[in-house]
Write a structure and sequence with these properties.
Radius of gyration: 23 Å
Largest sheet: 8 strands, parallel
Helix content: 10-25%
Shape: globular
Bound molecules: 6-O-alpha-D-glucopyranosyl-D-fructose
Number of strands: 21
Structural class: alpha/beta
CATH architecture of the largest domain: Alpha-Beta Barrel
CATH topology of the largest domain: TIM Barrel
CATH class of the largest domain: Alpha Beta
Strand content: 5-15%
Number of domains: 3
Length: 531
């Protein structure tokens, strides 16, 4: 079986992972030094958020040069060594490709500014003499004006001009970029905003009801999303990827609620997999979670691609915080979310076992394995996310889930590297350092390490089927063949477990005098069952 069908993939947000040169910003040297940690964690692959040369206006999703590494991260040689070293540690490497937009410092955009209205240089982007009514995903208008009076389109920050994917040079350039990195041995690409590249011809205004604040909830095809021509791009790309042999893959970042439209990207001649973001929008509620799982499996029954499961990433409020609330609806970040962290952590432990027991691939965002919460009280001057700026602080932005990892020690920067991290870490994180958790068999890290090891060894936990077991309301119980069950208790009371031997439990099981084990509330267990 190909590795990506059931891989556990760890997302490295490089600038917050580990700092090797002491400047407070994570880098390739830091990552390299922590490869043994990742190997011992038991993941199969790393997905690295963009590492390219970038002014970092959007954490590197604003690329100035797709063939160079940002100096704050290291050099091209460091990247090549990292790929080799990761492989030596048994870890595949997926890199992020950002094709919807460049940075405004990219050579093409600078040339477009210089060359002026009507020039061929401007045709690689969307320049017009007047804007339309589209809004940026980060808030405010999706158009900015340049000195000569023309406007250019940016679906994200003004520093991220959208490329014109109708232009043959744009298409050819990205094929060449893919080749550049494939030749350096990467095992795959995560495609940023994969459904958006192509825009409707003429860039027509949107109907009024589609204009407004950016919303993660909108999953509909539109003039700037899910155009049919985008599929041609991925067919081209797939031919290129496959020509390099090996077992490489594409994972699409596709925010589309309509399962049929989502599934159209998952074809033997397009993308291998895509993130399933449904858990991000789902409450900690048995019925809601079960509906998400059923819907996901139904979608994937129609395509050859395996499902994937995502609890957190660098764009959303961390799930230990989300689950510490009763209303864990997808996460507006508009306000500081009061959250019961003890409850959230218990549920995050259970959610880890749930997501790792489901069929297909699973993502772990760095820090999930430490149970890190969202950080709300960052000083305003430390915040870097353009979402915070563009919404005038109405939306706190995504810095709170990007705070550098605590590796060890008793005080910030917790051995992240250097004297201080680029975003300040809370003092309470002394309880959550990797070093401390390694020594504690009951820690989140120990749970992740055990569960990932069992998941890897357990044949039943691949990309096969699953079957719901009968259970009381509020309990999710399912079986994976052969003889492996997962039970999650979302009721408010202990529930008796089916017969079997517990393999991994997110909380201590109560064993009654009669010998039957009971699962406490907000906990999950993996069981070896009889057959
Ligand atoms: O537009 C959306 C929903 O309809 C958003 O979810 C959007 O797809 C998402 O925010 C895209 O995120 C990715 O691209 C951004 C970058 O800031 C994020 O960090 C990245 O994950 C722009 O490159």
């Amino acid at each position: 079986m190909t590795w990506w069908r059931d891989a556990a993939i760890y997302q490295v947000y490089l600038r917050s992972f580990a700092d090797g040169d002491g400047d407070g910003v994570g880098d390739l040297a830091g990552l390299e030094s922590r490869l043994p940690y990742l190997r011992d964690l038991g993941v199969d692959a790393l997905w690295l958020s963009p590492w390219y040369a970038s002014p970092m206006a959007d954490g590197g999703y604003d690329v100035a040069d797709y063939r160079a590494i940002d100096p704050s991260f290291g050099t091209l040689q460091d990247a090549e060594r990292l790929i080799g070293e990761a492989h030596r540690h048994g870890l595949k490497v997926i890199i992020d490709i950002v094709p919807n937009h460049t940075s405004d410092r990219h050579a093409w955009f600078r040339a477009a500014l210089r060359a002026g209205a009507g020039s061929p240089e401007r045709e690689r982007f969307h320049f017009r003499n007047w804007p339309n009514n589209w809004q940026s995903r980060f808030g405010g208008p999706a158009w900015s004006q340049v000195d000569d009076g023309q406007w250019y389109l940016h679906l994200f920050d003004a520093s991220q001009p959208d490329l014109n994917w109708d232009h043959p040079e744009v298409r050819a350039e990205f094929v060449s970029i893919l080749r550049f990195w494939l030749e350096r041995g990467v095992d795959g690409f995560r495609i940023d905003v994969a459904a958006r590249l192509v825009k409707q011809e003429g860039l027509p205004d949107k109907p009024d009801e589609h204009v407004g604040l950016p919303s993660f909830a909108d999953g509909k095809p539109a003039a700037d999303k899910d155009r049919p021509e985008v599929h041609e791009i991925y067919r081209d790309w797939r031919r290129v990827l496959d020509s390099y042999g090996g077992d490489r893959c594409f994972v699409g970042e596709i925010w589309l609620d309509d399962p049929d439209r989502f599934a159209r990207y998952l074809r033997p001649d397009e993308l291998h997999t895509a993130f399933n973001f449904a858990f991000l929008k789902c409450a900690w509620d048995a019925g809601a979670l079960r509906a998400v799982i059923d819907r996901t499996l139904a979608t994937h029954a129609t395509v050859s691609a395996p499902p994937t499961w995502v609890l957190s990433n660098h764009d959303v409020t961390r799930h230990a915080t989300r689950y510490g609330r009763e209303d864990t609806e997808f996460v507006n970040r508009l306000h500081h979310l009061p959250s019961d962290l003890e409850l959230g952590t218990r549920r995050a432990r259970a959610a880890a076992l749930l997501s790792m027991a489901l069929p297909g691939g699973v993502y772990v965002y760095q820090g999930d394995e430490l149970g890190l919460p969202e950080v709300f009280d960052l000083p305003e001057e430390a915040r870097q996310d353009p979402v915070f700026r563009r919404t005038g602080g109405l939306d706190l932005g995504r810095d709170g889930c990007r705070v550098p990892l605590p590796w060890g020690g008793e005080a910030p920067p917790f051995e992240f590297g250097g004297d201080g991290a680029w975003l300040p870490q809370p003092a309470e994180w002394r309880e959550l350092t990797a070093a401390r958790q390694l020594g504690d068999p009951d820690s989140m890290l120990s749970l992740y390490r055990l569960a990932l090891r069992v998941r890897r060894d357990e044949e039943a936990l691949g990309d096969g089927g699953m079957r719901w077991l009968e259970s009381e309301e509020g309990v999710l119980a399912f079986e994976r063949d052969p003889g492996f069950a997962c039970v999650v208790n979302l009721t408010g009371h202990g529930v008796e477990l089916p017969e079997g031997t517990p393999l991994v439990a997110s909380a201590e099981l109560d064993v009654s005098a009669a010998g039957r084990a009971e699962l406490p509330p907000d906990a999950a267990v993996w069981l070896r069952t009889a057959n």
